[in-house]
Amino acid sequence: MNSQLALLKKHFANCFDKHGSFIPAKLQEIVQASGVALSKEGYSLNWLGKSYARLLANENIRTLLKADTAHNAKPANASSQNLLIKGDNLEVLKHLMGAYSEQVKMIYIDPPYNTGSDGFVYQDDRKFTVEQLSSLAGIDEDEAKRILEFTSSSSNSHSAWLTFMYPRLYLAKQLLRDDGVVFISIDDNEQAQLKVLCDEVFGEENFVAQFPWRKRTAKSDVPFGVSQDFEWIVAYGRPNFLAGMAHERKYYTTPDFPNDPWRLSDLTTQKSADERQNSAFVMVDPKTGKQYPFNRKRTWGVTTDTFQGYYDKGKIVFPDDYDFLKIAIPAYRVFESEDKAKAVKKYGVETSIKAASTQLPKEIGLSENGNKEIVELFGGKLFSFPKPSTLIRFFVDLINEEDCIILDFFAGSGTTAHAVMQLNAEDAGNRQFICVQIDEATDPKSEAYKAGYQTIFDITQARISKAAAKIQVAYPNFKGDLGFKIFETPPMFDKYLDSPEELTENLELFDVNTLSQDDRHNLMLTWALRDGIKLDASLAPVTLGDYTAYAADKILYFVEPDISLDAVVALLEQLDNNPDFSPSRLVVLGYLLDSKAQREMTEAVKHYNNRKGIELTLDIRYN
Question: Do residues 160 and 150 touch, judged by C-beta distance below 8 A?
């Protein structure tokens, strides 16, 4: 059952008959009774493969999750909340649904543009017969045959691209918070299709803006004599995003300037010390004598000549000037007064809307700036047409939230991760990134391959590490998260069950003894994410006599072989006697239990009366 249908059944059970058939008239009655007008006009985007795309969005996960234990154990990464995941992003998005549904504040993606030269082709290793697809997707066999032909032919048609994008956007929407926003880069080739597709997935009323990004200034020789100098960034927000943009901003007044409200403002610019020598100076607070050094890559917005004039007029206020600032304001932040006319009274506090123009500032950079960042980090141009980190940093800054999750499931060279870490270092934020990149091979003739990077994922990983090291040097006092954990998505075990309904028929086909300890732990990690345990959490070993189980939150996992009644007895004793031990749910790999052991464990849990009043449940799993 897909999530939308499950939602209908949960909240509108009266709209289904006893056989599970949907009754549209019942839902229409509810809508009309609420005073919502029914529209008789509308349009939709249809293409060959749309029914297949819907099927893919709701198909069961076909992979496991595996941690890179060596990398994740390093001191910089052990407690990190940042994630880099290797794998097909459709599979990864499905995995993330368990613990990250409605948890992501912002998504930025730079998907394939389907230009014919960007390497995009639809490649699908799912194997359906015409009859199976016809039945599963609810289409006739002729349409099913045509769909299977294009999904197996490495097509790059508009239909193929839409079939590729739809399930990924469908799942991405479910990961966004109710006040979240998605930004999608695209060029002219699929811009029109993307806009209508997003209208359908996110809702036409949730369209925020379409930002034109100038990627180059030099005209190129192209057909029709028109240089394609711009790309587009399409933005859609969840229902409460626009309300969130009108966020509360407190305006303070100082004893020295009681009639001049002011707010936080970044007084630095993107100009380097070489570009603006007069702005490259150590700013000194006249009141305290405290020094505020400049960064060679980011100088002050005022000059040595204009500083005193701005300060005398109350246009610059330092954090240490007033006691109430020392509590709320991070060190090394400078403040600029705000024209009172810009402050809007709302709910009894001074607030304003952080408005953004679709005309992006020049400081966000061009493609050549993205290339320059790669060259500076790697010593060569190892990645084609990366976005500059300043572009993504602009949008991360725009959402005005310093403690949130940022997702990029077309990670490429890792620009989004770089942007998030950079902004955190600048404003002492605690933003977390989740980046996903498929293990796509680099061209053996490419500079990247010759430099030892055999896959795009290798570049992603290296870029994040190199950027983190560079940021740490530039901001030596920053104590935030510059590490990241790595996971990947190996295929599910051969003959492992897809659905519980197949249990009786196929139980003998899967031999649990073929699994190594790593295999079992990968399965446990996959289950834990499904159970709502985030990937930065640890699965801590718990000793139960001679047996080892693993705990996360209130769940205790049993995936090691030889589960005995002695282990269950030791578990119940710990529940009674260890005040720090209070799991309420036991999850057991069912294949490890014979029928006798299963009965004993079930009866022991069922009849256990504990001193803590814990309701203990047993979940014996086969998939």
Answer: yes
pLDDT in tens, 481-534: 999 999 999 999 987 754 444 445 444 557 888 999 999 999 999 999 999 999
**What tens digit of pLDDT does each residue of 81-109 get?**
999 999 999 999 999 999 999 999 999 99
How far is the C-alpha of 492 from the C-alpha of 500, rounded, in Å?
Answer: 15
What pLDDT score does 337 carry? Answer: 44
- 91: number of Cβ within 10 Å: 20
Phi, psi of 477 (to 5 degrees): -90, -5
Residue 67 φ/ψ, nearest 5 degrees:
-90, 145
| CA 576 vs CA 151, 571, 613: distances in Å | 57, 9, 10
Give one DSSP letter per residue of 603-614, joined into a string.
HHHHT---TT--
Q: pTM score, two decimals?
A: 0.80
On the question of pLDDT at 344 being above 60, the answer is no
**Shortest CA distance to 598 belongs to which of 226, 606, 469?**
606
Residue 194: phi, psi to the nearest 5?
A: -65, -45
Alpha carbon 42 to its chain centroid, in Å, reads: 32
Q: List the Cα angle 442/445/447 in 5-degree steps.
A: 75
| Residue 363 CA neighbour count, 13 Å, CB half | 11
E strands, 196-334, in order = 207-214, 230-237, 262-264, 283-284, 291-292, 316-317
Q: Which of 319, 398, 331, 336 is nearest to 361 (CA)?
A: 398
Interhelix angle 130-137/141-151, rounded to 10 degrees, is 110
Cα 354 to Cα 374: distance, rounded to the nearest angstrom: 31
What backbone phi and psi angles, to 5 degrees, belong to 183?
-115, 130
Q: Give the CA-trace dihedral at 459, 465, 469, 470, to 10 degrees.
A: 30
Chain centroid to CA 134:
33
User: What's the confidence (pLDDT) of residue 323?
Assistant: 56
491: which strand partners? 63
Q: How far apart are CA 138 and CA 135, in angstroms?
A: 5
How many other β-carbons are positioned within 10 Å of the β-carbon of residue 243?
A: 11
Contact, 15 vs 26, CB < 8 A?
A: yes
